[in-house]
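Chain X:
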Amino acid sequence: MTEPTSSMTRLQLVTEISRQCKATVADSLSNLQLYYRDFLYSWPWGFVCPSATIAIVASTATSDLPDDFAEIVEWPSFPSVDGNGPIVEQVDLKRILDRRAYSSETGPPRRFALEAKTFVPATGQRYTIRWDPTPNANKTLLYRYRIIQPLLANDTDYPAGGPPHNLTLIEGALAQWESSTGNVAGVHHNLHDIAWAKSLAFEKRLRTGITLGTLIATPPLTTYSGFQVGAVTEV
């Protein structure tokens, strides 16, 4: 499938950033990569938080998480006809370890904790889930997690999220450049805040299915989570 022409590659983003701040291509790329990393973790964006399944195995207290795992976004749940299956609650690891020291209970897990595996520099940090009670049957649970999204390695790479976030990435990189020059309250910081708020509004529309026919933007601007955004009114 061909990417829409409104999508911007890494090279196109860097070219625009360099044009606006008159910085070198290398410096502009560095600012883009620094901001891109922060942007990906600034919100549980749907494009970096996929739905997934995880298998629990009878008599096995742990399950390995994917290599690209960053954090749990939605707790694991048991599948059900109505989509409201029992949810497995996340707790502190010590609580589970303490319980397992005094109890050998088995059954459908009601609690889980994240546990870091031994760190291996060649592969990076990996995680596992520890279940409580220890599963007594093989099951497949549903959950969502944030992936560790790769940086933009090539000029032809497209950023995650697509065209709706192009301006946010550009202004974020320019705000990063402003900070590097000591201008921490520059125009691009303000423009970034507005662009980021628009990215968030787009993300929420994707999740709720709200169409443009049901919303209108009305002045004046209002503050939402520290960002200036247009007020939204139902019609």
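Chain Y:
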Amino acid sequence: MVFTYDLTTTPIPELTKVRFHIGDTTSATALFQDDEIAMVISLAGSWQKAVIQCIQNIIARMNSDLDFTADMLEVDRDSMRKHWLQLLVDKRKELGVLGQLEQLVTTTKHLWRGDSFQDEEPDF
């Protein structure tokens, strides 16, 4: 598995930025190969969107792992899921990459009955 995390190069490579933001900075516990991150950056269009997609991929992987108990050992992945979901929300805000729901903008308009003879919007 190819792993690169280079903080000495200027400007800092996009791959390194993605690794930093998802906490994938140690080769011994690497979550992604360099080629995987490069592909995600290419498909997403920016390293910021790639960060979000990598976190979503990690969450998807965790959802396929089951919690289990064996004798005195209990593995509950719920706290890890909560951590990654909160990181996803935080990184979306920090990097300015909003999901579909965050992009919705709503306005409130009070309506009144058509037979009320009002010609102005009511003041509630």
